[in-house]
Amino acid sequence: MKIRRCAVLFIEPREDLGIDWAALFSGAGALSASLRWVALAPHLDRETSIDGDQVAALGAIAQTAWTERADADLQLGAAMVDSLLALGLLLDDGSDANPARERDAVLRAQHWRPLSAAAHMFSRWDGMLVDKGMHFPSFEELVQSYGAPPEPAIERGDSAHAIPLPAAQPGPLDEQLLRRYTGRNYDPAAPLPPEVLARLLQRTFGVQLESMMAQEALVFKKTSPSAGGLHPTEAYVLVRRVPGIAPGLYHYHALRHALEPMASLEPDDAREMARQFVADQHWFVDAPVMVVMAARVARNFWKYRNHAKAYRALMLDAGHLSQTFYLLATEAGMPAFVTAAVNEKAIERAFGLDPLSDAVVAVCGCGVAAAGQTTLELRYEE
Ligand SMILES: Cc1cc2nc3c(=O)[nH]c(=O)nc-3n(C[C@H](O)[C@H](O)[C@H](O)COP(=O)(O)O)c2cc1C
């Protein structure tokens, strides 16, 4: 039997802070710190505490080339090798079912940059309640907690000789640009007309042109730019109130311009799912649709293999799409939102997405505005 180390592994000297009660009562400094090694291996999707001997042993086994198990036993001791195999940090070449080995193979197949894989896998939430489910914090509260924010605009260079520019001339984009705002007060009963949803999806995520760039390399043109022209972002739709489309989960097919049903939902379950998706930000929950943006990483990493900027490009791609989505919603007379404060793991479970290959980036949505403004919004004066 042969063994090797998992493809990606970072080891963090983790500091756990606590109250040292004995020191507190003796009048000494009350903060205690304990240190441990934490193995961050994205294929495992969980943090693993290990000891210093295990750290050293992991450093002695290659991650690409295979090592004979017998040789590793001689070098490190069979018990050590067994412990690391059991944790899934070392992998054997056996043919038995081994979830750690299978997940490691998925990770290797995507061409992730190691730091990006770790950042992605260990920044996902599950069951998170933003602001403890209370409310959207006002700027007054933020200033109270953190003091004044850094200034909103800065001077750089020769500001004494700054060249004044003419005021922006009115232009056709102003209509949408100047009315766009993040809606945080949605009418809980108003539906989203299906033709509005269709236009939003087609003009944000749909294919405007297709081009065969090389044999077997079909490339789409969309209304937003995308790194390498690859458009890895898929749109997964949670439908709540769209006449003619049953509440449920759908995948938007960019080329066919069609919603592929993935699961139907009772309205109450759809509401609960929406709440979980946006980490209990109740100001978004009444939106009649939400669109999850999830990057099919293999599509981007096909070109940008093990690339330092590839993950950043995925985030930027989704950002561009969300602005396009906002502007189309504005055109339809509605506010929109985008949020990265999402419970990725709940979304992955709902749509059956593997975070190593389909990276949930953000959730956007839109809908008819409610009459009042209970939660803060930044609207232009009418
Ligand atoms: C990447 C990103 C993440 C955001 N996340 C949240 C969020 O979690 N909750 C929220 O209420 N708004 C969120 N927003 C909306 C911003 O708060 C909003 O754009 C900002 O307050 C300015 O308001 P405006 O969009 O109306 O101009 C997010 C916006 C962006 C671009």
Give me some keywords for this one.
2 domains; alpha+beta; six-stranded antiparallel sheet; binds flavin mononucleotide; single chain; three-stranded antiparallel sheet; 382 residues; NADH Oxidase; Outer Surface Protein A, domain 3
Walk me through the structure.
It holds the Pfam family Nitroreductase. InterPro entries: Bacteriocin_Proc_Enz, Nitroreductase, Nitroreductase-like, SagB-rel_DH_2, SagB-type_dehydrogenase. The chain is of the alpha+beta class and 382 residues long. It folds into two domains: 2-110, Outer Surface Protein A, domain 3 (Alpha-Beta Complex); 130-135 and 173-366, NADH Oxidase (3-Layer(aba) Sandwich), CATH 3.40.109. The protein has 14 helices and 14 strands. Strands 11-10-9-12-14-13 form a six-stranded antiparallel β-sheet, with helices on both faces. Strands 5-1-6 form a three-stranded antiparallel β-sheet. The chain has a three-stranded antiparallel β-sheet with strand order 2-3-4. Strand 9 and strand 10 form a beta hairpin. Helix 2 (52-59) packs across helix 4 (78-87), helix 3 (69-76) packs across helix 4 (78-87) and helix 9 runs antiparallel to helix 13. The radius of gyration is 25 Å and the shape is globular. The mean pLDDT is 95. The structure holds flavin mononucleotide (FMN). Residues 136, 181-182, 184, 281, 338-341, 378 line the site of flavin mononucleotide (FMN).
Oligomer: single chain
Helix content: 25-40%
Provide the succession of SSEs. EEHEEHEHHEHHHHHEEEEEHHEHHEHE
Distance between the termini: 73 Å
What ligand species are in this complex? Answer: flavin mononucleotide
Give the count of structural domains: 2
Structural class: alpha+beta
The CATH homologous superfamily name of the largest domain equals NADH Oxidase
Low-confidence stretches: none
The major β-sheet equals: 6 strands, antiparallel
The CATH architecture of the largest domain: 3-Layer(aba) Sandwich
Sheet with the most strands: spatial strand order: 11-10-9-12-14-13
Q: What general outline do the C-alpha atoms trace?
A: globular
